[in-house]
Amino acid sequence: MARYTSWFTVEVPPTRLQQLLIEVLQTCNLDIVYHTSDYIMAQEIPGKTPFARLVVVEVLIDKTMNSTTETRINIVVKNEELPLQMNNHCYQMFQQVNQAIADNHQWQLIESICG
Questions:
Q1: Euclidean distance between CA atoms 31 and 39, whole angstroms
Q2: Cα 77–81–87 angle (5° rounding)?
């Protein structure tokens, strides 16, 4: 199973963060499957990729920070594919999601860590 994680700290009003994250995920051709106030699950839309390679993205929103405008988010991108190559489908989607978050002009990116 391929699994990639990243952490971001963004400056955005908390009331807009979840909707902006949903929009970013949708621009990456991901369908929102489930969401709560601090969690979003999105899945790659079937059709162009074999079933075992379909990517699931989980977004955890850390609401414990003491700032009223800064929020830390944790992104997990995973699928059932064995990561036999460094540049596999899951990693490509991981890069696409990270780039979409970093390039979003609706918030200010304060910190990013990719693991």
A1: 14
A2: 70
Whole-structure pTM over 0.85, yes or no?
yes
- The C-alpha atoms of residue 2 and residue 6 are separated, in whole angstroms, by 14
User: 35 vs 3, 21, 59, CA distance in Å?
Assistant: 20, 11, 9
What letter would DSSP give residue 53?
Answer: G
Rounded to 5 degrees, φ, ψ at 107 are: -140, 170
Write out the chain's pLDDT in tens, 115 residues: 899 999 999 998 888 899 999 999 999 999 999 999 899 999 998 888 888 899 999 999 997 776 778 899 999 999 998 888 888 999 999 999 999 999 999 999 998 888 6
Helix (H) or strand (E) holding 106: none
Terminal CA-CA length for the chain: 16
Q: Domains in the chain, start-ordered, CATH in brackets?
A: 2-114 (3.30.310.220)
